[in-house]
Amino acid sequence: MSEKPSFFAELKRRNVYKVAVAYAVASWLLIQIATQVFPFFEIPNWAVRLVVLLLIAGFPVALVFSWAFEITPEGIKRESEIEGDRSITHHTGRKIVWITVVLAIVAAALLAFQFYGPKFGGAAKNEAPAIPEKSIAVLPFDNLSEDKSNAYFAEGVQDEILTRLAKVADLKVISRTSTQHFKSTPEDLPAIAKQLGVAHILEGSVQKSNDQVRVNVQLINAMTDAHLWADTFDRKLTDIFAVESDIAKTIAETLQARLTGSEKTAMSKKPTENPEAYELYLKGRHFWNRRTEADIRKAIEYFHDAIEKDPSYALAYTGIADGYSVLTGYSNDAPKQYIERAIPAARRAVELDDSLAEAHTALANAIGADLQLPASEAEFKRSFALNPNYASAHQWYGEVLQSSGRFDEAIAEMRRARELDPLSLIINCVLASAYYSAGRYDEASREVQRAFDLDPNFGVAYWVRAQIEEAKGDFQHALADYEASRAGISSDAMNGMIACAYARAGKRAEAEKILHELTNESRHRFVSSYSLAQIHAILGNKDEAMRLIEKAFDERTIPIGGGGIGGPKIDHRFDSLHDDPRFQKLVAKYVGRPE
């Protein structure tokens, strides 16, 4: 009487091992195909996850099937129904081996392409990424008014059309910051479109006389120079919102963008019934975009004037909130007073119009400056749901993520911001700073060079490059770049970083001299405690550094993003405090996880 075969011998006879290997190879191949092909057909990411889960669930089923059944010339039969001398499992096993070999060759070829293909074709792909067909840049509108002081109005019409288009998720719309680099009717449209990463350009002009407005627009396929649509609108000033809405809707329809019901409503919305309030708001945005302390203060005055004309004007409240929020970075005053004005204005804007993306962004930015990072994140996400094309919102949210130590997410948001605003100096710089914070110095250097290519005198670019050089131990060049950053960075922050660089370079006396000067000045005027805390921490004065960093938290002078400084969670100048329970408690409070 023959011995009963062992369990493992039976697994081998029934081809269970071979089925397992074949299933694993086939599953890996299917997952790779899904991840490569699904995005091409705009199939959502959850479909790839579903494929993975189904394949995992199918693995034990395949093994059980291989154990319990056999494929015969007559069809599939249960193993128990087949006599031993009639079993053909050995023939089936050879077929499985050959199928596995073929699949393995295909998988190896795909793997080789993924590793080596980019070396041959990837560089060109990165240099010239595919431009989506449903993409547009609204170039500056010519001001044809006899009164050249009406330039603000032409800017406002351009900005309003752009903003309405940006609410459509199916469109890629380039931010005004990048389009302002060009004239209304440039000569080389294909080159500009390529630089901005769009397929279409909208050109236009505005002529305003008293309460009459004429708006000319033409939509152009930048690759072919074909004029897809053009029109002239002669209306009263009170009808300007209807004109802007009609233009935006026609463009969306011409580009065959999918519009949801809420997007159609948002594009048709009239922000105010008062034309005087609208003009005051446009003047405010005109000065806000100049980004100097004097211009921002003037913008806030115009926004207040607009509210006097229309107390329910949500965008004007948003302007006030934006003005006070950014003023903290342009003034030497204590920032808390401005934050305390920005938050109520932003909340009022949300109360007046909860569907306004700009209001939620203003609130997110204001409460972020107030160091309420989790609440800020929630408001940013609400803003993206309402307007996915708001570049500044992606930038500011990226800086919140950066300061929280979530570098991969921060880089993704800032890359999205740059995609929407490719010529923005500040966005290119903060992206470089995010790479710096993540310790990816080569990528940081490459990104900051983009900003220098756009403007070799941009102060923030010197600021970010100095931090990269300091991290690499190149203190001589770092100190020179900190000095060169004066045009874009507050003097106290700059002097604080110079002192830290001196200390790290072994020049303690120079660092202590700057600390002494800043400390003396703080007795006569406001000096950020954060800068003082940095210097004390780098010099090893831990107790004084802790006192000052806690004071900085109360002052709200801890930076969000900060062009790379980014607050205590990521600022390497506080490395000596990492083991201090007081510092750990402060960091937990800063990122929104109080102990």
Task: Reconstruct the topology from this structure.
Elements: H1 7-13, H2 16-37, H3 45-68, E1 69-72, E2 75-78, H4 89-127, E3 135-138, E4 142-143, H5 151-166, E5 172-173, H6 176-179, H7 189-196, E6 200-209, E7 212-221, E8 226-236, H8 240-254, H9 261-268, H10 275-288, H11 293-309, H12 314-327, H13 336-352, H14 357-369, H15 373-386, H16 391-403, H17 407-420, H18 425-437, H19 441-454, H20 459-471, H21 475-484, H22 491-504, H23 508-521, H24 529-539, H25 542-555, H26 581-590
Parallel strand pairs: 3-5, 3-6, 4-6
Antiparallel strand pairs: 1-2, 6-7, 7-8
Molecular structure report:
This protein is an alpha/beta fold. The chain has five domains: 7-127, no CATH class; 135-268, TolB, N-terminal domain (Rossmann fold, 3-Layer(aba) Sandwich), CATH 3.40.50.10070; 271-357 and 384-388, Serine Threonine Protein Phosphatase 5, Tetratricopeptide repeat, CATH 1.25.40; 392-488, Tetratricopeptide repeat domain (Serine Threonine Protein Phosphatase 5, Tetratricopeptide repeat); 490-595. The protein has 26 helices and eight strands. Strands 3, 4, 5, 6, 7 and 8 form a six-stranded mixed β-sheet that branches. It has a two-stranded antiparallel sheet with strand order 1-2. A hairpin with a 2-residue loop joins strand 6 and strand 7. Helix 22 packs antiparallel against helix 23. The longest helix is centred in the first third of the chain and has 39 residues, at 89-127. The radius of gyration is 31 Å and the shape is globular.
